[in-house]
Amino acid sequence: MDFSFGPDDTAFREEARAWLEAHLVGAYAAAAGTGGPGSEHEGFAVRRAWERELGRDGWIGLGWENRAAGHGNRRASLTQQVVWAEEYARAAAPARVGHIGENLLAPTLIAYGSEEQQRRFLPAVARGDALWCQGYSEPDAGSDLAAVRTAAVPDRSRGGHRVTGQKIWTSLAKEADWCFVLARTEPGSRRHHGLSFLLVPMDQPGRIEVRPIRQMSGTSEFNEVFFDGAHAEECVGGEGNGWTVAMGLLALERGVSTLVQQIGFAAELDRVVRAAMDSGAVTDPVLRERLVQQWARLRTMRWNALRTLGSTGDPGAPSVAKLLWGGWHKRLGELAVQVRGAAAAVGPDDWSAKEPYGLDEAQRLFLFTRSDTIYGGSDEIQRNIIAERVLGLPREPR
């Protein structure tokens, strides 16, 4: 299998690298590396301005026009999308605040939405003007997404639906303009049946309340969202087809973005290896072997991601990818503190810069990666999907 890039990809890489070098200056350069999982609160205002900078020069929505003409900014092959993602990660550019709109909502509209819905929503995402959040998980429906209880009824006066219920762990809910919500539109329905994929504007005072979930670090990357008869303006894919649309979105989530994630993983691994060398832990043969295994497994994840990139109809590919990177990242977090020995239990020297509960980079990596095998579908759920939908094994009794 040939994983090499062609001459057009090389030229595209040079263009992307030159643009990033020219534009990552001033406040944008100062915000380099900010944001991302575990620190999405960092430098939000600058990162939102950066989103519009990307949109002005056509770097949002690469490849959309290959599937939905007229809604994206720039044509790009699949390999060129990979090239842009790699160069963006290598430049340590600010974490994207428009990721959910560009990489989750937009491909879902292209695959399942009407032309009218695409014309209405995609251009604003491509300009960097509209931010989206995801209304999937609930207090009693996290990895088991089919257990959602948020309900929606037809809005007889305005059209659309009225949504009532609660969502949780909603990233960027305080800042988002819109939320795509999985809700139950058929009263009395259970599990995967009777669900719909609804588009809800977040600016509805008295109808939507967002409560930040404050963590022990003092930050609040996630939020609870309460809907009290909130108006949903659009239904994607038709009423009752929400499960199909929601699963299609999760499959799209683990495409090119997986490769971007792996570049960040490689940088984290490099830092852990350097820490092992500085502390002398690298002389321990067992620990040294674990570091080598991490390197080898990261390479394997890359080949697997490239192999499955753009594939359709494989229900197991997203689950395999999630199992691979979730476990890998969790083990890396463990290594990050192990290579430092007792020093890993000590807080940073400058406590004033880390209010109210200080964590250094390795400690944050260790603590945050404990959640990698849970959020986005726990390991147990991913294994069930592979067992039932790929291997054809009997379903788990309910």
What's the architecture of the largest domain in CATH terms? Up-down Bundle
Structural class: alpha+beta
Helix content: 40-55%
What topology, given as strand order, has the largest sheet? Answer: 1-4-5-8
Instruction: Give the tally of structural domains.
Output: 3
**Which descriptor suits the 3D outline?**
globular
What's the total helix number? 13
CATH fold description of the largest domain: Butyryl-CoA Dehydrogenase, subunit A, domain 3
Domain Acyl-CoA oxidase/dehydrogenase middle: 133-228
InterPro entries: Acyl-CoA_Oxase/DH_mid-dom, Acyl-CoA_Oxase/DH_mid-dom_sf, AcylCo_DH-like_C, AcylCo_DH/oxidase_C, AcylCoA_DH/ox_N, AcylCoA_DH/ox_N_sf, AcylCoA_DH/oxidase_NM_dom_sf, Mycobact_Acyl-CoA_DH
Domain Acyl-CoA dehydrogenase/oxidase N-terminal: 8-129
Family: Belongs to the acyl-CoA dehydrogenase family.
